Amino acid sequence: MNLKKNLILVAKWLFICVLIGVFSGCASAFFLVSLEWVTQFREHHNWIIWLLPMGGLSIGLVYHYYGTDVVKGNNVLLEEYENPQKIIPFKMAPMVLISTLITHLFGGSAGREGTAVQMSGAIADQFTKLFQLNNSDRKTLIILGISAGFASVFGTPLAGAIFALEVLYFSKISLKSSVLSFLVAYIAYFTVEILQVKHTHYSIPKIPEITITNLAWISIVGVLFGLAAMLFSRTTHFWGKLFSKTITYPPLRPFVGGLVLVVAIYLIGTTKYIGLGVPMIVESFSTPNASYDFLLKILFTGFTLGAGFKGGEVTPLFFVGATLGSALSLVIPLPIALLAGMGFVAVFSGATHTPIACTVMGMELFGFESGIFIGLACLIAYFSSGSVGIYHSQIVMGAKHDLYQRFKRNNLRDL
């Protein structure tokens, strides 16, 4: 009898994984194709950037009157995982999809992972009622949604599965959730592959020897990547708080932010800091960037998201890390592609407190040969980035949390 029940339970969760993986993969595939289309349209019709304030106003109005319960984006998923209250409204998926496309069409600086994760999370949570799941199983659904969304939008199933577990505090995750997270990540990933939607490819052609000198240089750049992650997180939170304090009517925040962004884009005379910035990321692996490129991307992205536009933070974090690493190649005696690749994932590691997932992602994207260098950079960036990340509701636990608690206690004792 127990065997039969177990087989039924296994079959149920396999079926759930297939449903979430396929639906999330299809949603991400549609999103990626649509995002490419709006990006190309904007690049060939730059005049549309002048409509960014109106795009921001439309986003603000929709979320103010119809989406107050999902306006916090990824933080809704994190909060529902930590303290399950009610099923995530399905409207989160179409609202964040359309809002992100509007943001990119008119020239906002944002990413894409937040959109994919929110769509997948909303899709996954709808199965709570269908399969009559309890709060414990709801947590598993949220993990599966995050895993599927991340894996399908970036084409990194291993990193997607680990990211979902790590961002939600790894030691609280059950074995069942861990196994299912990997399964759904691969289902979502292969769904996108079957639909023939392509991801950007990167490479690190030259890997130096592992020497004390090289490891010392990596330790130094790891700290710099961590500080860049801290600056990114704090900048985004700063603009969000400033807009909230100074503009009481929420729909006006992205409208005013859009006005400022349009003027800024016009004054600097380039569009390379808006949108995803993938061309700049690809270029950074072979051509040294200017020392200010990463700072301007932090400023544009923090302002865009803080004003209330929609999208993710991760691709801009890739931009920040890759361009910073590329610029450092002028003074650090390491291959430019390696420095760009390490920055690509290390800044992400610091801003999301997920060094394991970022290390795995680096190896998936750049090859396992670079694993030691990438792992060290991600770990050092993680410890150098402070306790505040890009997600307000993320609970930081483990070694980093303990380190900061000891630091606070010692400082209070000294006082």
3D architecture notes:
The protein contains 18 helices and no strands. By secondary structure, it is an all-alpha fold. It has 2 domains: about 190 residues, Clc chloride channel (Orthogonal Bundle); about 190 residues, Orthogonal Bundle (Clc chloride channel). The N and C termini lie far apart (about 65 Å).
Features:
72% helix, Clc chloride channel, 415 residues, 18 helices, mainly alpha, single chain
Amount of helix: over 70%
CATH class of the largest domain: Mainly Alpha
CATH superfamily of the largest domain: Clc chloride channel
Number of strands: 0
Q: What best-fitting shape do the alpha-carbon axes yield?
A: globular
First-residue to last-residue Cα separation: 64 Å
Which radius of gyration do the C-alpha atoms yield? 21 Å
How many helices does DSSP assign? 18
Structural class comes to mainly alpha
Average pLDDT over all residues: 90
Order of helices and strands: HHHHHHHHHHHHHHHHHH
Query: Strand portion, in percent?
Result: under 5%
